[in-house]
## 1
Amino acid sequence: MDMKVAKKKLGLKEKYRLMTRDLGWEPTYRAKDEVFPYVNYEGIKVHDWDKWEDPFRLTMDSYWKYQAEKERKFYAIIDAHAQNNGHLNITDARYLSALKIFLQAISPGEYAAHKGFARVGREFPGVGTQVACQMQAIDEIRHAQTQIHALSNYNKYYDGFHAFADARDRIWYTSVARSFFDDAMSAGPFEFMIAIGFSFEYVLTNLLFVPFMSGAAYNGDMATVTFGFSAQSDEARHMTLGLECIKFMLEQDPDNLPIVQGWLDKWFWRGFRVLGLVSTMMDYMLPKRVMSWREAWEIYGVENGGALFKDLARYGIRPPKGWDDAEKAIDHMSHQFMLGLYQWSFGTSFHSWIPSDEDMDWLSAKYPTTFDKYYRPRWDHIRKLAAAGTPFKNFGLAKLCQTCQLPVVFTEPDDATMSCHRETEYKGEKYHFCSDGCQHIFDNEPEKYVQAWLPMPSLFQELDGDIGAWMNWVSLRDGEDNGDYSGSRDQRNFDQWRGMATSNT
Amino acid sequence: MSTVFIALQANEETRPIIEAIEIDNPLAVVNRQPAMVKIDAPNRLVIRKETIEEQIGREFDLQELHINLITLGGNVTEDDDSLTLSWAE
């Protein structure tokens, strides 16, 4: 009988060398500068691309194997969700607003990240970098697809999911996320890596995927937990790539430090503004809450971000410029966003609502220094107006920040009773900003941001301010997708179907 | 001192991995949250292939961690036998 002799397996380091470095070559028909034309103009100096190593040393053969395993796990749960009335097992249909925002604003961001990594994978000359970017490009398209697929099960039963692609392109609040990714994709390859790989992935996505997805589990939504954690399992690799990228730039040449620091300042603030909406999803939109936005910030912002910047101090990096302003905003932002979403709910393809007494008690326990002082009185007043049959609706259009594209709804970092507004005049035109952070970003690159497509001015420019025509254009069905949750079709259907699922009459 | 951490999905595959991490890192703190487990440690956390194999009773490739990994914090160093997370002291 033949004895099977197991072939000696290659060690991780050897395999990584063979499957990355060994696949590269020096071009001979054309000069290297012609093959990689975008790698120098940002001013980043690289002396040795081979110094770039993926600490996980993941090679393509293992990549496919583990990704296939993740997909099998994912589809097992998606099938179970569809077969077991998963759409009725959520705690409350209010929760769906968070998913609608996710699908309209965040899943398209995954797709944008896919395009961006496919591009920078081509533009970087280092082979290790190319392989890591290629994997991330494939990851990101997988995330977009699995998210859309998982949420399509809810689209069969609930409003607001049906036209996410139109919402992504046209509705006002999604332009916040879209402009973030467009900004990154129209930057050079190194800035793109800092924007997405480092600021977004390493510093900020934990806040989105970890406590929010754990919250989805708490709210009975196995479909979302599954795509969230399946995506996040790639995210750990992306974060490591982002951190590796920043360390690589800083180790290659001391001249890179000021450029990298400038990008960090910019992209921390851009990311903080985009992910700000997650604060409202966590504090207001999860019927059962795992932790508050403040608590999540303490863990993933203060503790982890703090550790990271302490670690990078050895290269001369300091925490991003907007760090202190971010800290001051944490106890206010979810309330300010929710008040904004409620008053403009005619124009949102998801529902908002007035928090219940129980919700407000939770909020005052979690935000002892701000909620009762600044926000409960406003909700009480709004509730009185609703009870009197004159709900507080703002049919005016919000003034948008030229940089982050959010409505200017925030307060001064040191005075929560004073609305924060900045203005810059550039070539005879006035531009508005929500914060010092966004104004600084504009002032550094005005020629980029004057070209921003802003939804509110466009409504007047292209549709003469006709709200009905605008709703058709963004595929928003008035009275179905938008407005208050209370009295909505989602609420009626959920209550009725849940009743049918738990009784026989 | 800074905290490094790793978060894994809470499931049957990760239970022995978490036990192995606890064995190898006496200072680690295990936080159980809905659907996930987050393990914090001061400055340094090491995950050893051998300890995991003792817990599960079969060969284990450390890269299998990717399947159930949710997130981590710290600089990653990986070879065939261990994965280490650390912050500069």
## 2
Amino acid sequence: MIKSELISKIAQQNPHLYQRDVEMIVNAILDEIADALSRGDRVELRGFGAFSVRQRRARQGRNPRTGDKVAVDEKVVPFFKSGKEMRERLNGGDEG
Amino acid sequence: MTGKTITRTDFYETVYQKVGLSRVESAELVESVLNEISDALERGETVKLSSFGSFVVRSKGRRIGRNPKTGEEVPIEPRRVLVFKPSAVLKARINS
């Protein structure tokens, strides 16, 4: 499923809304997650999962094609952990 | 880092502020978005949200794990896990 399919599905369930309103809702949710992560905040959606950021130290990397050494700066990466209910749903309901 | 946690109610409020629906309906729509994504994942579909990232369901085979406290071997049964792959746009946004 891609974003446009998600938007059409929700628009179909809500015939009183314009498709562009649904689009705005989906984008507002995704933007809020991205903004929170840029501030270093956590996002917790019970049953679904939690987004957070993890710090990665600067390291010496290598260009895999040429083998040259390259300096990789320290960075922050997004991290997602699925929620308990989600893990149960993916596995038929009764296990964690 | 401000160390805050964003939860469902923050999303309800954002959608309410941005879209001009009632509070009740704003909350319902946030839930619909999460439910549609969860349903697709439960069906085993990949959910691709452009400029945000993809949620992918991976199947893991049976393997032998170990209880770290007792050292006892315990089988880990085949299961499905959810992974989030952040898009390049999201990674860049978080580091800017």
